[in-house]
Amino acid sequence: MTKTIDPIALREWIVIGAITDVQQGVPYCTRVLGQEIVCLRNGDSFEVREAGSDRQPQRQVQVRTRYGHVWICFADSPRPMIDITEFDDPRRRMITWGGVYVRTSAQRLVENFLDMGHFPFVHTGILGAEPVTEIREYKVEVRAEDAEVWATECMFYQPKASTAADTGRDTAYIYRTSGPFVVVLYKTAEAEGEFDNIGMLVQPLDEEHCRVFGYTLLLEADTTDTEALHFQQTVFLQDRLILEQQTPRRIPLYEKNEIPARADAASIGYRRWLRAVGMQFGVLPQQAKEGSPP
Fold this sequence. Notes:
By secondary structure, this protein is an alpha+beta fold. It contains five helices and 15 strands. It has helices at 7-10, 106-114, 119-122, 225-243, 265-277, and strands at 14-18, 28-32, 35-42, 45-51, 57-66, 69-73, 93-102, 139-143, 148-158, 169-178, 182-188, 195-206, 209-218, 251-252, 283-284. The chain has a seven-stranded antiparallel beta sheet with strand order 7-13-12-11-10-9-8.
């Protein structure tokens, strides 16, 4: 797999690992958008270069550290990185989890994160439970100069919305998708009127394989870091089992296979945004011919 030439993908800031994953003086080798890269750390400074077939460093690429992770961009003029103001809130604790390998496209992962309809069936007893399966109407809009898709006024009954929750309740959700590889969730916190912040930062290894890095910014103090970590890992590993069975692995953007429904509004908005910007990496942009492989 060679590096993609899709300009939309190449302009994105993409996470390659938690800051703590990159050790002083030890080459950190991974793959992004089909391109092998090498990251070197010197104190608080990071250098990332493309790697040749012999794994030797070549062209330097842009690198930043933010939100507890290392981000890279291949383009000289990157798209602005998402601004998550909750990281400036001193009341919040950050719990990170990640580096989970998944055999699917990055866009499939983002779309699954946006889908409330699977809660009662995949996350039974945690994020949902039968017979409460109705998806109430919510709003989807494009913001931030056509760079982000927001789903607001989402509400869903959950038996155990968080580790600290001891009873079921209606949980408010706001979904924020920034570009093709980053999605953030604002979710009812234990403190009244407040929202926890949960993010999923996807590293597209190639068009059909990726790694997932996540974080949770918690407000409440009753849950330990270990308990919060186990909660998020349990939910995600349930998703992973479903994601790796979906075919095709790349997300279809052709409208004939989309049947709009209220439950799919966020997913449809995300797919339409991908189509509108002309995304080519990790997607099936047009109807495949009958009998041809996905």
